[in-house]
Amino acid sequence: LDQKLISLKAKLQDAKQSKAYANMELLQQQIKARKKQLLPVYAQIATKFAELHDTSMRMAAKGVIKSVVEWSGSRSFFYKKLNRRLAESSLVKTVRKASGDDLSYKSALALIQDWFCKSDIAKGKEDAWTDDQVFFTWKDNVGNYESELSKLRAQKLLNQLAEIGDSSDLRALPQGLANLLKKVETSRREELVDALRKVLG
Predict the structure, then answer these.
(1) Residue 192: partners with Cβ closer than 8 Å, 6 or more residues away
(2) 47 and 107 share a domain?
(3) What average pLDDT score do residues 25-38 get?
(4) I need a surface site. Which of 81, 120, 131, 189 has the fewest CB within 10 A?
(5) What's CA 201's distance to the chain center, in Å?
(6) How many other CB atoms are found less than 10 A from the CB of residue 95?
(7) What domain of life does the native source organism fall in (predicted)?
(8) Structural domain total, the chain
């Protein structure tokens, strides 16, 4: 872009064609000096151009990030975010275990978010899911989602029993039920036997 540099390079080309070697060396030194002179200006322009795209303020304005984290509060901010992700991951693991690993991580997290948004603690609050404090208040009270986990466990058991029913060898089922009943407490065993009688009716 620099006219002086363009002119020097054209003169160097002419000197090469006319084989004026002494002149060529002088022109190369002048080109080198000119580049050295221009470098700080171009570096400053390039930096400014990059800042127009990659600064946190610009990224926030474009909607690439939600907000700018101030350096002074960054440690606390990222600690809370990491703690939140770990808590979500732990709960997802519990949900996946309850469902028999039928759910993917993403599906389990979506299920948790659905339970959370339907809970009393989140009603009427648009951005409740993104509020870490509200999330922890909800998560720490297992009663908020225990019934949902019980439904998943029951469905898992039904699926397992359906698999056994679909298998060709049903002779193992009575023995499996007998072993299960032996492990259950006496009071609960009677309840289960009564429930089975009603079903078999």
Answers:
(1) 181, 184
(2) no
(3) 90
(4) 120
(5) 50
(6) 21
(7) Eukaryota
(8) 3
